[in-house]
Amino acid sequence: MLSIAKRTALRAAGAVPRTQSVFSNLGPSALQRLLSTLAVLEQREGKLNHGSLSAITAAKTLGGAVHGFVAGSNIKSVAEEAAKVDGVEKILAVNNAAYDKGLPENYAPLLVENIKKGGYTHVIVGHTSFGKSVLPRVAALLDSQQISDITAIENENTFVRPIYAGNAISTVESSDAIKFITIRGTAFAAAEVANGSAAVEDGVDPKAELNTEWVSEDLAKSDRPDLATAGKVVSGGRGLKSKEEFDKVMLPLADSIGAAVGASRAAVDSGYADNSLQVGQTGKVVAPQLYMAVGISGAIQHLAGMKDSKVIAAINKDPDAPIFQVADVGLVGDLFEKVPELTEKLKSS
Ligand SMILES: Cc1cc2nc3c(=O)[nH]c(=O)nc-3n(C[C@H](O)[C@H](O)[C@H](O)COP(=O)(O)OP(=O)(O)OC[C@H]3O[C@@H](n4cnc5c(N)ncnc54)[C@H](O)[C@@H]3O)c2cc1C
To answer: Which range is the signal sequence, renumbered to this chain (predicted)?
Structure first.
């Protein structure tokens, strides 16, 4: 049975603010002292995922005690790094290579045991492939309903999340005893790894039987900034016409300003760019300081992934392209002429 009461505030697309305040008016209260949140921190090859730090910020926004959770092989250094995050009281660490790949089949029972032991009121994880895969199982095992992809916290029971590709904002109130929440990384600033001195303790390891085998992964590697967290992103669309042109036009532009490269789904589907570069409803959600859309029409599914960018610049030969409706700066013209010209100017500036 669903235990979530929904109050859905539908707003016309134009009325939705481009940026939303994450920190609502949470004043200190007696109730907040009873709250305790477990922030599940992702690690890959011994490095804390940057997005995990946003989960800690969200946990701190709730008030109450904040504990972090890490698991994998040689977890000590990751746990020690996480312990330096300001405002975290305790890091629970489970040292076991079986959790290296974050497989939900054994990671879910692992979390269940640690949540039961800690008696947490909230469990928060980034809305990443890992979070989306693991947390629903944990929530189901503990008879709760997950609240996904939140962008703001109103109070300990009430959360804000975009729906319909960001065209409506839903305010969700949960009466579940434990709230299982995934957060949109771009809506919560990453907590600083600074002068914190959280205690590091061993978590419970149920060593659940694993009937799934990790076979392999094929990760796209790039020396450019990570698309999800870059401060500047330049994205190319179908207007680039081919992979050769995409590489010839977009990569020098990206390098001239130290930007990450993104792409529209049409560009990805046409083979101009790797799937991992897709921005949008079914790709990555980004909110950099600068987002430059080149030869991208501005379909609603693309806007869902970038409209919270601080400054949006667009280059398109069609003055009526919808991208200009969200752009702060627009240039109408042929990208094959304008972008190389711009790149040269940026390189020499
Ligand atoms: C369920 C679903 C999910 C989707 N998810 C995503 C998603 O995550 N991300 C996403 O991007 N899309 C997504 N889409 C697809 C989306 O609807 C659009 O089809 C797609 O975004 C279009 O990509 P585009 O703007 O590159 O191509 P087009 O719409 O074809 O636009 C190309 C643009 O390039 C311009 N142009 C062409 N030549 C030049 C030139 N020489 N100089 C300057 N400008 C030029 C044109 O004027 C045009 O505006 C999704 C669709 C569905 C149904």
So the answer is: none
Residue 91 CA to residue 122 CA, distance in Å, equals: 15
DSSP designation for 3: -
Domain ranges in the chain with CATH number 3.40.50.1220:
232-348
Angle between helices 104-118 and 129-141 (to 10 degrees): 60
> Between these two residues, 243 and 1, which has the higher pLDDT value?
243
Q: Which tops the pLDDT comparison, 164 or 13?
A: 164
Q: What is the pLDDT of residues 99-140, one digit of tens each?
A: 999 999 999 999 999 999 999 999 999 999 999 999 999 999
Closest CA to 59 of 135, 120, 131: 120
Any ligand 1 atom below 6 A from CB of 289: no
Structurally, what CATH architecture does the domain formed by 232-348 represent? 3-Layer(aba) Sandwich (3.40)
Query: Above pLDDT 90, what percent of the chain?
Result: 78
Per residue in 14-32, pLDDT (tens digit) is 333 333 334 444 445 545 5
What CATH superfamily is the domain 4-202?
Answer: HUPs (3.40.50.620)
Return the residue matching tokens 């970038």: 306
* CB 124 less than 6 A from any atom of ligand 1: no
Query: What CA–CA distance (Å, rounded) separates 157 from 45?
Result: 35
Enumerate the CATH 3.40.50.620 domain ranges in the chain, comma separated. 4-202
